[in-house]
Design a protein that fits this description.
about 110 residues; three-stranded antiparallel beta sheet; 3 helices; 3 strands; about 15% strand
Length: about 110
Amino acid sequence: MNDTAERDVVVFTEALRLLAAERADYLDRACAGDGELRRRVERILRGYEQAGDFLEEPAAGVPTTNSQGIVGGEKPGDRVGRYKLLQQIGEGLPPQWNPCRSSPRSRCASR
């Protein structure tokens, strides 16, 4: 990170810790007449405030879990291509599955 970006981050972080009513005075002191720095930091602050908590909410219309509590909608017995999902063996995004190849000669093995 260059010095300009580091300075922006420091001033932004400190301004964020203050109440909105205290920020103008802080920016006056921190930017000390550097109008460009102040404009950059104010732009970052506005973006931060506009973003709100959008990451806390799931996207509209996108289920976070299905009826069995599995993210993504897969459940045991579903088919993905030529594989049948036997059981969920790991958590995370995406969840990990123990698959079985769907062919007459395949044997399904679980570890």
